[in-house]
Amino acid sequence: MPIDPEFEENRDVVGTHSPDNGGEHEVRGPVDEPERLGIHGTVVAVDFDACIGDGACLEDCPVDVFDWVESPGHPASDRKADPAREDDCIGCYLCEDVCPVDAIKIQY
Ligand code: F3S
Ligand code: ZN
């Protein structure tokens, strides 16, 4: 399942995530670890339950928005692309284009 483009209306904020090398961003549920991890970020939103850990977004982002976070026990992959620095996004939409499972939605 790709990320829901209407996720801001359809998914409730259940918390925030403050990664080591980034800014605080919203997490939308449902979250039930380790199987369901929700959506991280708002300007750069990554559906962790859709992400298969492909890594194209990390490789191609020109401003280094993403960091890996470990997700042991998740059915789709054991690592996820966290939008740690979503505030740095320049709206190029490259990550949306390269993600093979459409796990990313940019709202720039
Ligand atoms: Fe995940 Fe797609 Fe990036 S599968 S690692 S969000 S390219
Ligand atoms: Zn996060």
TrEMBL record:
Residue ranges of the region described as Disordered: 1-34
Pfam family membership, one: Fer4_21
Domain of life (superkingdom): Archaea
Gene Ontology MF term list: 4 iron, 4 sulfur cluster binding; metal ion binding; oxidoreductase activity
Bias-annotated ranges (Basic and acidic residues): 22-34
Positions of the 4Fe-4S ferredoxin-type domain: 42-71, 80-108
Keywords: 4Fe-4S, Iron, Iron-sulfur, Metal-binding
Record flagged with keyword Protease: no
InterPro entries membership: 4Fe4S_Fe-S-bd (IPR017896), 4Fe4S_Fe_S_CS (IPR017900), Fe-S_Ferredoxin (IPR050572)
PANTHER family associated with the record: 4FE-4S FERREDOXIN-TYPE DOMAIN-CONTAINING PROTEIN, ADENYLYLSULFATE REDUCTASE, BETA SUBUNIT
Record-given protein name: Ferredoxin family protein
